Automatic annotation (TrEMBL):
Record's keyword annotation contains Coiled coil: yes
Name of the featured protein: Alpha/beta fold hydrolase
Molecular-function GO term, any one: carboxylic ester hydrolase activity
Organism listed in the record: Dolosigranulum savutiense
Active site: 90, 190, 220
Assigned keywords, A-Z: Coiled coil, Hydrolase
UniProt xrefs under InterPro entries: AB_hydrolase_fold (IPR029058), Esterase_lipase (IPR012354), Hydrolase_4 (IPR022742), MAG_DAG_Lipase (IPR051044)
Coiled coil: 143-170
Domain Serine aminopeptidase S33: 11-222
Length: 243
């Protein structure tokens, strides 16, 4: 299982933060393409992710993942990098946005399919339950046992989502004052979060220089497949245009 990706190729470092229940594998293609372009890549695994037991994810919350992001920035700075961009997919995008609000020296930041606003139409419960159950089966649980474990996990998931909304409620007022370069990418066919998050976010970024990319055929994970190839080109262009 991938833990941390660190590939040194140039003076501009790009930090990548993955999605909830996922790993840096979300960014395999993007990382490969950016290193070819001469960017240094650092992609850590968020706490509670990438382990054998899916229940490990409940040992941590948004404050822990934000601290993971801070540690990633501190590490890359300690390596001597001063020009830093940071991107995140889904949950990673929330962390990325929070980091940008407290670090005004970033070259840029970006979100991919990220629920950075508060929206009643988001629903990751089905996908999460399937992921949780599959993880328990891999640990040796019977189908029935895994189903029971997954059902119990749903109450914990609701608490995580509630806490996340409280975190975002405190974060959102800062958007309108952010001055910097921002990339926002969203798939129109996203079944886990409301795609309108992206436009709402762009509208809130009143003083930022925003590049907004809408992928008509994109689902939630827009970093892979045909849409992922288009995203890679768009991110490369965005970064290259920073000068």
């Amino acid at each position: 299982m991938t833990k941390t990706v660190y590939q040194q190729h140039g003076q501009h470092a790009v930090v990548l933060l993955h999605a909830y229940t996922s790993t840096p594998d979300d960014f395999t293609g993007l990382a490969r393409e950016l290193t070819k372009q001469g960017y240094t890549i650092y992609a850590p695994t968020l706490s509670g992710h990438g382990t054998d037991d899916p229940a490990d994810i409940f040992k941590y919350d948004i404050e822990d993942w934000l601290e993971d992001g801070r540690e990633a920035l501190n590490f890359i700075r300690s390596e001597g990098y001063e020009r830093i961009s940071i991107f995140g997919l889904s949950l990673g995008g929330i962390v990325t946005t929070a980091l940008a609000m407290e670090n005004d020296d970033l070259a840029s930041f970006g979100t991919f399919s990220s629920p950075v606003m508060i929206n009643d139409h988001d629903d990751i419960s089905g996908q999460f339950k399937q992921w949780f159950k599959a993880g328990k089966v891999e640990l040796g649980y019977s189908q029935q046992e895994a189903e029971q474990e997954a059902a119990q996990a749903m109450d914990k998931l609701k608490q995580v989502m509630q806490h996340l909304n409280e975190f975002k409620a405190d974060l959102i007022p800062a958007y309108k004052n952010y001055v910097g370069n921002v990339f926002v990418g969203q798939g129109a066919q996203d079944q886990l979060i409301d795609p309108e998050h992206a436009q709402q976010f762009v509208d809130e970024l009143q003083q930022a220089t925003v590049t907004f990319k809408w992928y008509e055929d994109g689902g939630h994970v827009i970093t892979i497949g045909a849409v992922g190839r288009k995203l890679r080109d768009d991110v490369k262009e965005f970064l290259n245009n920073l000068g």
